[in-house]
Structure formats: structure tokens, C-alpha cells
């Protein structure tokens, strides 16, 4: 009893002293939902708390340290449509929040960055387009989600390690599919692979899964992929989720499938166990009662970036936090075996990329044989000499 009382006495301020005022660090998570067809597999139906669950875990993690630093973290959760997103962003900023995690497509992310201007820092937790890190880059945006170029390079490195240099590239017909295909073309040139043929899968609309769906697919996919030049692997570029999951085991030639199905490059995977990831997965699953998704991890990491900056600087001032995040002094842990940092030329978060099948992580890129004068992580994506980014403030 005496020891317990003594411990409480040490924790309490002395008579006449006051507790220092708690610093509050506020952020928001803005998820922009688009109505469309359901995913091919019902296992991929998005949960209602997609992204938000990652935010809640990040706030718990930030508060674990923050309570000892006199800091309190908050993340407001907001859903919007493309038509209401700009108004919701204005409302968030008007409420005094200057860090906004955005889960949106490329076009909406860019529009939100321009709407925010110098009023807020956005942390992109979904959009993958290379133009957002290049010709359309904005100084007020940090890209936590990996780019198309990073994902394509990560897969290309592994395929070259496997000595599978000949690729049959099958992009979809939507613009986002073509953007991903462009990243694979660039990766092939970068690492010495050969694209033996490109064969576009045209989306003709209609239902993608019906009672007789598998019968039609079983007949169609072998015909679609027949008479291709000799190749080691088929790479699908299907950001629209129209056809890629149907390719494994249904190609005319017995070849592995990679890209948007088969061996898939990802920022995170629910089976990841290395570098302390098991404990991270367990905490997420206890809280959300489901496996983690990439959007959850990317939102978690975005808010951990803010939390780490607040802890390291001892500040709650948004301008000071932003400057520290963008400095060469900043890094954050992400359960990927090394520190994650922000590239100064396009504000992309450097990070390893997991190469995954359904149940496991097969490998992690960058592969050991690919070296870099500064960071091996810069072998993934657009390096400083390659960037088309020339920062200008959003209007």
C-alpha cells in the first residue's frame, strides 16, 4: 500500500504546480467513395470501415507515446462522393484541421490538393498514378500509397531474379489500366526485360459474375491468350478489376500470372509476419475483427507519420510538423524491416514492396542485387534524375 501511494505521489504534480496544457494534434481521414460494379470476388467487397480502421489503430499507437509527451491525437472520419469531396475538405479545413489523409482516385486527389492550396497538407493513402508524382505533383501532398512505378519495378526486379525476362503484357481498356501498363513498359526497359506482345482486354460491360460466369470464363480466357509469342510470364494490368483474377490456370500456355493477379505487388498483406508485423496484424484484427487491407495500412502509416513528427519535435504546430516530415531528419517505422522516409523530389514515401500470392508473402523488393548510390529503395519508382515533378504551389 505504501509503495503504491508513493508511486502515485511521484506521478502527481507538487502542490502549487499545474499540469502542462495538453497539445492536441488533429487530423482527418477523407474517404471518397465511388459507386461502381462490385469486385469480381465477393472476398474483395470493401468493409464499411475501410481505411478508417487503420486510422483508429494509428491514433491508438500515437496516443500510446503521446500520453507521455503531453500530446493527444485525433482523426475525424469523413466519407464523401466525388461530387461532395471538395466541400467536405473545405469543412474539414474550416474546423482547423491541417493534416488530411485522402482515400480517393487520382483525379479527385489532384482536385483536393488544388482545393487545399496552402491551407492543409494532404497525405495520399490510395491513388497510385505516376502523374501525381510527376507532371501533376503538388507540394502540399505526401504520397503514402506506392506509385504504379514502384509496384511495377518491385515485380520486375523479382521476375529478373527468377530469370523470367520475356513478358506477355495484358492491360485492360480503361485509362487507369493503361497507366499501369505504362509503368510495366518502363520497368521492362529499366531492368532489361522484353515485352513480347501486348494484348488489350476490352471491357465490354455487363455482369462480371453470374451463375454461368465461370463456364464462360473457362471458355473465353484460353482463347483470348492463345497464339501468343513464347513468354515466361503473363503480366496483367487491371486496375479496374475487370478480368485479371480469371487469368491464373486459364491461360492457353501454362505460364505464371503476375501483376493484378497471381503474384501481386502490394504495400501490405494480411499474412505478413516479419519485422514485428505479427503483433501489428494481431492488434488490428482484435480491433477491427477482420484482416487488414492496403488502404488500412496506408492510412495507418499516414497518421503515424504525423504522430512520429509530433513526438520527435515535441510540437503540435502544423507548419513545424510539415517541415520536419519533409526534412532529411525524418523517418518512421512501418514493420517493413527498415526506416521509411519521404523523397524530397516528389514527396513519395520510400518503402519496400511486398510480392504476394493469396495466402503468403513470396518476396519483398528491392531485391538484393539491385544497388543504389543513396538508398536501395530508390530503385523502386522514379528516381531523382527521372522525375518530371517540378513543385508548384496548388492554386
UniProtKB/TrEMBL annotation:
<feature type="domain" description="Leucine-binding protein">
    <location>
        <begin position="53"/>
        <end position="356"/>
    </location>
</feature>
<protein>
    <submittedName>
        <fullName>Branched-chain amino acid ABC transporter substrate-binding protein</fullName>
    </submittedName>
</protein>
<dbReference type="InterPro" id="IPR028081">
    <property type="entry name" value="Leu-bd"/>
</dbReference>
<keyword id="KW-0813">Transport</keyword>
<dbReference type="Pfam" id="PF13458">
    <property type="entry name" value="Peripla_BP_6"/>
</dbReference>
<dbReference type="InterPro" id="IPR028082">
    <property type="entry name" value="Peripla_BP_I"/>
</dbReference>
<keyword id="KW-0029">Amino-acid transport</keyword>
<dbReference type="InterPro" id="IPR022478">
    <property type="entry name" value="ABC_transptr_sub-bd_PQQ"/>
</dbReference>
<keyword id="KW-0732">Signal</keyword>
<comment type="similarity">
    <text>Belongs to the leucine-binding protein family.</text>
</comment>
<dbReference type="InterPro" id="IPR051010">
    <property type="entry name" value="BCAA_transport"/>
</dbReference>
Amino acid at each position: 500500500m505504501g509503495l503504491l501511494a508513493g508511486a502515485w505521489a511521484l506521478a502527481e504534480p507538487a502542490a502549487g504546480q499545474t499540469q502542462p496544457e495538453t497539445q492536441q494534434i488533429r487530423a482527418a481521414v477523407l474517404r471518397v467513395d465511388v459507386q461502381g460494379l462490385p469486385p469480381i470476388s465477393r472476398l474483395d467487397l470493401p468493409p464499411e470501415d475501410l481505411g478508417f480502421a487503420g486510422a483508429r489503430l494509428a491514433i491508438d499507437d500515437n496516443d500510446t507515446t503521446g500520453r507521455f509527451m503531453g500530446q493527444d491525437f485525433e482523426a475525424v472520419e469523413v466519407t464523401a462522393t466525388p461530387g461532395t469531396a471538395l466541400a467536405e475538405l473545405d469543412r474539414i479545413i474550416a474546423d482547423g484541421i491541417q493534416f488530411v489523409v485522402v482515400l480517393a482516385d487520382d483525379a479527385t486527389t489532384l482536385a483536393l490538393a488544388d482545393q487545399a492550396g496552402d491551407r492543409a497538407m494532404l497525405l495520399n493513402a490510395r491513388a497510385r498514378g505516376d502523374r501525381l508524382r510527376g507532371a501533376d505533383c503538388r507540394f502540399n501532398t505526401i504520397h503514402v500509397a506506392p506509385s504504379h512505378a514502384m509496384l511495377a519495378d518491385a515485380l520486375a526486379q523479382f521476375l529478373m531474379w527468377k530469370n523470367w525476362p520475356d513478358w506477355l503484357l495484358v492491360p485492360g481498356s480503361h485509362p487507369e489500366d493503361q497507366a499501369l501498363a505504362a509503368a510495366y513498359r518502363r520497368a521492362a526497359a529499366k531492368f532489361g526485360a522484353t515485352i513480347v506482345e501486348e494484348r488489350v482486354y476490352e471491357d465490354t460491360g455487363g455482369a462480371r459474375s453470374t451463375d454461368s460466369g465461370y463456364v464462360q470464363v473457362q471458355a473465353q480466357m484460353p482463347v483470348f491468350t492463345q497464339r501468343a509469342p513464347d513468354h515466361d510470364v503473363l503480366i496483367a494490368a487491371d486496375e479496374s478489376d475487370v478480368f485479371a483474377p480469371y487469368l491464373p490456370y486459364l491461360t492457353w500456355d501454362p505460364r505464371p500470372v503476375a501483376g493484378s493477379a497471381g503474384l501481386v505487388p502490394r504495400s501490405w498483406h494480411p499474412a505478413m509476419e516479419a519485422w514485428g508485423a505479427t503483433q501489428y496484424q494481431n492488434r488490428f484484427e482484435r480491433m477491427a475483427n477482420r484482416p487488414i487491407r492496403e488502404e488500412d495500412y496506408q492510412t495507418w502509416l499516414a497518421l503515424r507519420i504525423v504522430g512520429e513528427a509530433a513526438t520527435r519535435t515535441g510540437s503540435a504546430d502544423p507548419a513545424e510538423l510539415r517541415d520536419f516530415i519533409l526534412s532529411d531528419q525524418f523517418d518512421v517505422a512501418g514493420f517493413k524491416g527498415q526506416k521509411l522516409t519521404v523523397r524530397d523530389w516528389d514527396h513519395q514515401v520510400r518503402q519496400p514492396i511486398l510480392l504476394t500470392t493469396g495466402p503468403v508473402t513470396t518476396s519483398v523488393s528491392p531485391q538484393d542485387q539491385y544497388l543504389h548510390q543513396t538508398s536501395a529503395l530508390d530503385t523502386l519508382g522514379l528516381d531523382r534524375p527521372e522525375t518530371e515533378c517540378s513543385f508548384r504551389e496548388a492554386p
